[in-house]
Amino acid sequence: MRRAAEVRERGHALTGGATALAAFDKRGVRQSAVTGNVRSAAEVKLATFDLDTHLRLDDGAYGEDGEERSELLLAALARADVPAADAVFLGDTPADVTGGRDAGVRVVAVATGKTTRAALQEAGAEVVLDELADTGRVLNAIGA
User: Fold this and answer.
1) Distance (Å, whole) CA 39 – CA 63
2) Which of 19, 65, 84, 99 could serve as a FRET partner for 78 with CA atoms 20 to 30 Å apart?
3) Bridge-partner residues for 110, per DSSP?
4) How much is the pLDDT for 114?
5) Rounded alpha-carbon distances, angstroms, from residue 5 to 10, 40, 41, 144
């Protein structure tokens, strides 16, 4: 509980994130998490902002699974038994974009303010969204 309070105080979920996850789930999109955080920290962060409800966390990959995004994505793909060509990675940093491309998955990036649209495009993101608030646009971007 203390960790959740700290996370809530210091962080926030992107506007539209929970709605997008629910919309993906409604359309049968299998979802998980790929993050450099260790799994226990990721679970606290996701639960704090009610983002864990639609995720298959056992299919994900976490900091203890590797250092590079491509390693994490390959671990998640193996756990989920999903070919890279059938996956879409939603990320928000140039490292996410590069890692996704190196793992052979399609990358949709979100310019959250920490990373500019231009930097995400330069890294090679196929699609760059400015936000997640427009659920229809997000669904279109991932092909759901």
Assistant:
1) 7
2) 19
3) 129
4) 83
5) 9, 15, 13, 34
